[in-house]
Each structure stands twice: as C-alpha cells, then as structure tokens.
Amino acid sequence: GELRAAYSEANPRSAERHERARRSLPGGNTRTTLFYEPFPLVFDRAEDGYLHSLDGDRYLDLLGDYTAGLYGHSNPVLTKALHAAIDEGMSFGAQTDREERFAAALRGRFPGMELLRFTNSGTEANLMAVASARAHTGRSTILVFRGGYHGGVLSFGNDNAPLNVPHRFLLCDYNDVEGTRAAIAGKAPDLAAILVEPMLGSGGTIPGDPGFLRMLREEATRAGALLIFDEVMTSRLAPGGLQRALDVRPDLCTVGKYLGGGLSFGAFGGRAEVMNGFDPAGTGARWAHAGTFNNNALTMAAGLAGLEHVLTDSALHELNARGDRLRGRLSAVFAEAGVPFTVTGRGSLLTFHPVSGPVSTPADLANANPVAKELLFFYLLDRGYWMARRAMVSLSLAISDQDCDELVATVEEFVAVHGAALRDAVL
Ligand code: PLP
C-alpha cells in the first residue's frame, strides 16, 4: 500500500494520462502485458538503453520490449536504413528486392526454415503455422503446453481460454516426458501438430530440457504430426535459434520480435514439402496467404540491416554470455542470503521467481509469493530500472557490463533491506 502511494505521488503525469486513456481504451490499455496496478508509467522518449517517462525520470530499459528491442532504441545502422526506406517510398503494393534478401538471410539462419513467409506479428505467424499443419496433415488436434504463450489467441498460461482460436487443443505439462508421450500415444491418429516454445517465454523463461524436446521430435515423427517450434522469443538465444543450438529440427517454426529490427514482424517457415503448399503457381495445394503489410518496406529494411550489419554471431554470443553471467550472479545473491527467489532463463533472457526453486515447469511456481514480486518490481523501478511487471528481463545490445554490475548491486541492496521479511515469509 505504502509503495503504491509513493509511486502514485511520484508519477502524477502518468496517473493523469492513465485516467484520460481509460476513456478510449479499456483499462487505458491496448497491450495487456504492459498493465500493472495502480497505473503503468508512460514513456515519451528513448535512446540506446534508456527510457524517459512523462514524469521526467530516466530508466535503464531491462525489458527490451519483451525481446523485440534487442537492438536498443537508436541503433544508428537501423535508423539510417529506416530513413532511407522512408525516402524510397513506403507502401508499394508490389514485391520488392529487399524482401527476397531478408528471406534469404532468415533461411540461412534457421535450419528448420527451408522456405518461409512473412507476417506482421508472432501471433499471426503461429496462427499460420498451425493452420498449415492442419491443412497438410488433414488432422485437427494441436498439442500445446500449460504456460505456453503463442499470442493472445493461442495462450495457455492463464484464464485466456475463451479468447483462444477454436482449435482442438490437447494440453500437457512442459518438460513432462512420460505424461506427454502417453498423451500423444492416445491422440496419434488425429494429431496435426505439437506447438512448443523450446524455452517457455511468458511462462517464466523456463528452458525446455533437451531430452524433452528430442522426445517431442521422435513422437511427432512416429505419430505423423508436425513439430512446430515457436522461436518468437528464443531465436535470439543463438544464431540459429534453439533449434540449432540444441540440434532438434522442427518441421515448421515461427519467429518474430527483434528480427524485424524493432518494427511489426513475424515469419513462419519450414520443410519445403509443407511450405510448397503456399506456392501460387505450384503443383501443390495453392493455399492462399495474403496480408497487406507482410512485406512492408520499413520492416524489410530494418530487419535486413540488423542481420547484415549489426547482429553478427559474435555480437549475439556476447549478449547471451552477458545474460548468463548476470543470471549466475543474481542467483548467487539470493542463494547466499537464503532468500526464496529463483532466477530462471537462458542467455539474454531471465525471470525472477519468488519461490525457492528449482523451477522446471510452471507448476513449480504454484507457491510464488506475489507480494515479493511486486516489492522487487517497485524497488527496482524506484531506482531507475524498467523490467516486465512479471519480473522478466531481456537484455538489449545497449546494456553494458557496467549496467549489469549496478543491477546486481541494487539487487544486493534489495536483499539487505527486505531479505529477512522474505525469508520469514511475513510479506
Ligand atoms: N510466441 C511467443 C513465444 C511470444 O513470446 C510472443 C510474444 O510475446 C508471441 C508468440 C506473439 O508475438 P506477437 O506479440 O508479435 O504477436
């Protein structure tokens, strides 16, 4: 209560803007994940690794727009490519040279993408991948996992079921090898696809066990179903995504987020045998897939410039190594103080969970202490750190080792101030 009162007092312009926004947007919001009580901060400017609030404060952007902001806010290469694209004309209603180059760059990157198509979001990419699997197999059941998030209409984390697309879903527990194997065996003749994030993203940055993912590969093949990797978040964890890092090849995969250089983006692709169904002049199914902005000039320009000139393999490796070091140090801070927080993730992605751990599936979060999470969020906010309200961090190229050192020191302070209460579970 005290925290929230202090927050409201410190951010009057965000509060006032929230009241106005509620007149046009339900809850003042058009992107659910950005909402938190009592009202979210409003930002009006950003550069490099920083965000500036309407209330005049500067925050280190540890959220990196839920992984879409990998390049930081004002990368000069992307900015230049975008200005040039604007000058060339923005909406052609025709094919462009750049879309071919961008598609080739993606194809070269992800082994599971022999052919691909662009969309405007990760959600759309997943909807298309699932539809392709159903059309290709002539079957209807889609196996998904509790805690999985593939977009607002393919969401299995909370009570979103009424909004999900009306597919026949079979729901299993993430990282549960035996349970999932049994469920697949029971549904094999109607199983069109297994849709899985190789690391749960929104569900808490919980890595998939390599053995679990390999089992999905084997069982999909045995059942005659397609394995779809949703790599919208995880594609940033290695140059070829987790599919290449773990050497598990999906039949179809989806990407999104940062690959569009910070603009609206998604893509789905996979084995040529499946994707050829979209060849408008082919001998196959000739499924239609349109989309006015699929090849929009700005996304194509920014995405291509990012891959060609900024995101070298070594830059990506360094970013993920920085995240691994940060996660290790944060975990040690909590462990040494005996404070019940577990930091999960891989590479440049991490989440603080207010539980003792280990955390290998969303069910392990059942006893999470929501007050502890709120306390950490507002503590960091008060000291100039912006992260997801669900306590997720996604590092961008604009975050330095020094930024990470300072974050660790701030979390040490948090533990010194609140550790006893957290340990004794009096919050
Ligand atoms: N899939 C995963 C794993 C995601 O994390 C997200 C977004 O958070 C999506 C799909 C949806 O992507 P978009 O928000 O671009 O529709």
Automatic annotation (TrEMBL):
**Molecular-function GO terms, alphabetical:** pyridoxal phosphate binding; transaminase activity
Recorded superkingdom = Bacteria
Source lineage? Bacteria, Bacillati, Actinomycetota, Actinomycetes, Pseudonocardiales
Q: Sorted alphabetically, which PANTHER family does this protein's record hold? A: GLUTAMATE-1-SEMIALDEHYDE 2,1-AMINOMUTASE, GLUTAMATE-1-SEMIALDEHYDE 2,1-AMINOMUTASE 1, CHLOROPLASTIC-RELATED
State the organism named in the record.
Prauserella marina
What is the protein name for this chain? Glutamate-1-semialdehyde 2,1-aminomutase
Alphabetically list the UniProt keywords.
Pyridoxal phosphate
Cofactor(s) needed for function: pyridoxal 5'-phosphate
Where are the residues of the annotated region Disordered?
A: 9-29
Give the family from UniProt.
Belongs to the class-III pyridoxal-phosphate-dependent aminotransferase family.
